[in-house]
Every structure is written in C-alpha cells, then in structure tokens.
Amino acid sequence: MTAPGGRPILRAFFVHFLTASGAVFAMLAMLEASQKDWSMMFLWLVVAFFVDGIDGPLARHYKVWDNAPRYDGVLMDLIIDYLTYVFIPAYALFSSDLLPGWTGWCAIIVITYTSALYFADTRMKTTDYSFSGFPGCWNMVVLVLFAIEPNFWVSLAIVVILAALMFLPVKFVHPVRTARWRWLTLPMAVAWTFFAGWAAWVEFHPESWAHWGLIVTSLYLVGAGALQQLIWREVL
Q: Which of 140, 152, 168 is nearest to 107 (CA)?
C-alpha cells in the first residue's frame, strides 16, 4: 500500500502523465492529417483541447510544482500546445483547399512564426490571468473555417488579423482562470468543445446545427475580453 504521504506525489505525477498524453493525441491527429482525414484529425485535436482544459486546474489543485517538480508542467504544456494549437492546424489549413496557392503559404508562415514568438512571450498573461493578445488558438480558428468554409479572402483576412492581435494590447479571456464572467465563459468553452466535436463527427456537413453553435460560442470567446476592457476601461 502507498503511504498517505505519498498520495499527493502520485496524484501530481498523474497530472504530468495526463498532460503528456496530449503529445500522443497530437501524433494521432497528425497521422490523420497526413491522410487528409480532417474529421478524425479534428476529433483528436478536440480530445487534446479537452485534456488541456482540465490538466491546469488539476495541476494547481494537486500542487505539482511542489509534489512533482522533476517535470516542468508549464514547459510540457507549451510544447504540446504548439503542436495541437498551432502546427497541426496550420498544416491542415495549408493542405486543404481553403487557402489555395500563395494564400496557403502566407497563412502557414504567419501562423507558425507569430505563434512561436507569442508562446515565448513572458507577458502573455495579464493580472487577472487572461491573455494579452490573441493566444494562438489556431486549432479553434481553423476548425471553424473548415465548418463554415468562407471565401478564401475572408479566411486569409481572419488569419492576418488574429496574428496581428497577438501583439496588440487586447485582452482574451481564459475560460478557466479569468474570474470575471467565468460563470458564462466556462460554459461557453464547454459548449464550443461539444459543438466542435459534433461538427467533426458529422464531417462538417454544411447543414449541421453544430455550425451555428460554433459561430456563437467562438464570437463570445474572441470578443469577451475586449468587451471587458471596453466596459471597465482596463489597460494591459
């Protein structure tokens, strides 16, 4: 039997192992992307997104920085996030027909380059644990683009605008850590995850009701932080 004093350590290591599973889901998503099975790719990315959403609260609850300091959970999380949030979605955007020719090249260069800079930014978090600038959630953006299939000029404009917003003093809420409006933001993030999984499951069928859910929840998650800044006149 494990001594009572060893349980916090085991639980902390379990959280690290849970975080590391995101690398496996990233590989499974990449294998599906290589076969251009976009629905399965996004399903694995949604699973990785779900894991990323719960490992942080678990890490804080079980104090992994004290009970399992051998592994740097923050570094591990950033590595996996770059794969699942940036690299694989950018590849999918390039390999699909959403951005043809030079527009696809432009998108993947902009996405991967700006995201690498942003993920290394020591000031990406605000005092209320929101994000300063667009947090590089390209997995969410690209999934919505696959669902609604806008004109390629619209898709390219969305990519360029969001990339620019990475470096502007605009707040984006963290669904779990931003306390203000969390009663609404967290359910919105959960709903987005559900709609994303359903849209991918039905292979982005154009008549799927999940697409409307994706649009509504995405607009809230993108704009809630800026709206808070506007109402309370906050400066990052």
A: 152
